[in-house]
Structure formats: C-alpha cells, structure tokens
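Students often ask why inverse folding is considered easier than folding. One informal answer: many sequences map to the same fold, so there is more than one right answer. In these notes we will look at a single instance of the problem. The structure comes first.
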C-alpha cells in the first residue's frame, strides 16, 4: 500500500515538469497485440506516441485488454521511452517504463461472486522499432510488472504505428 501511494505522489510531482516542457506532438498511433504470462492471456490494445518533449524521449500512453485464464485485465499504462541509435541501422531499440493501472476481474464458478481488483505499480519496458516507410514503423517489446502490479508479470507485445 505504501508503494502505491509513493508511486502516485511521485507521478503527480513530475506533472509540472512535463507541463513546462515543449508541447509534445502526436508522432504515431496504432494497434498493439501480444500475449502475457502469469496469467496466460491474449492481449490487444492501442497506443499513442508523443514526441519532442525531450531529445530521444517519447511519451507512449497505451491501453491493453487481456483475455483468458478466467480473468479479464484492462491495463492503462503511462510509459516514457528513451530511444537509442544503432550505428548503420534503422532499428531503434528503446528502454523505459512508467506508471501502470490494472483493473482485473476474475470469473468465479457458477453460484459464486466474481472478484475484481485495481492495482497500481511500475512497468519496465525494453523494445525496438523497425521503420516501415512514410513515418510508419513496426515495434515489439517486453513489459515487466514491478511493485504492486503482479498481473501480469510479463507481456510480449508487438504492433504497428502509423506515423505522421
């Protein structure tokens, strides 16, 4: 419980710094899909990529829906990524993380009450993008839940971003 409060207070403390930065622009948006482990689920969703608030940094909020294992998870993630450059390559690896809020609902057997829970914690993310032309790009990433977000512990996600 203490970690959850600390994360929320920390995120709120950073808002004035982000507000004074250069206004971000939507650089890309698109679908995301993948799988999670523990629970074993299919994951679908979408994201935005806001850039230009700092060199090599992007702010990438996303929404994911996980289905399977008698559980439904709705994850809202506020992630920031640092994009690295590889010499002689168009691939762009990135590292980052952010605040995540997960809403989970367990399906109970017939005659019992369903259970739901809301968890707040940190996400750690490692991924890369591959250009697809005209500002579009493919991406893939590994997402780890840290702190009070044990649902899910690991996600493998990929997708396509339509750029400007």
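Output (designed amino acids):
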């Amino acid at each position: 419980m203490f970690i959850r409060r600390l994360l929320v207070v920390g995120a709120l403390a950073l808002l004035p710094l982000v507000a004074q930065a250069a206004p971000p622009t939507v650089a890309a948006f698109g679908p995301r899909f993948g799988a999670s482990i523990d629970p074993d689920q299919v994951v679908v969703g979408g994201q935005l990529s806001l850039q230009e608030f700092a060199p090599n940094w992007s702010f990438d909020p996303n929404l994911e829906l996980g289905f399977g294992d008698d559980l439904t998870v709705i994850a809202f993630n506020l992630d920031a990524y640092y994009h690295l450059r590889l010499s002689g390559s168009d691939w762009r690896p990135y590292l980052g993380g952010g605040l995540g809020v997960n809403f989970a609902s367990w399906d109970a057997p017939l005659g019992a009450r369903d259970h739901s829970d809301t968890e707040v914690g940190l996400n750690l993310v490692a991924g890369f993008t591959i250009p697809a032309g005209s500002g579009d790009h493919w991406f893939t990433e590994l997402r780890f839940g840290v702190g009070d977000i044990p649902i899910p512990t690991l996600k493998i996600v990929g997708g396509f971003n339509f750029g400007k």
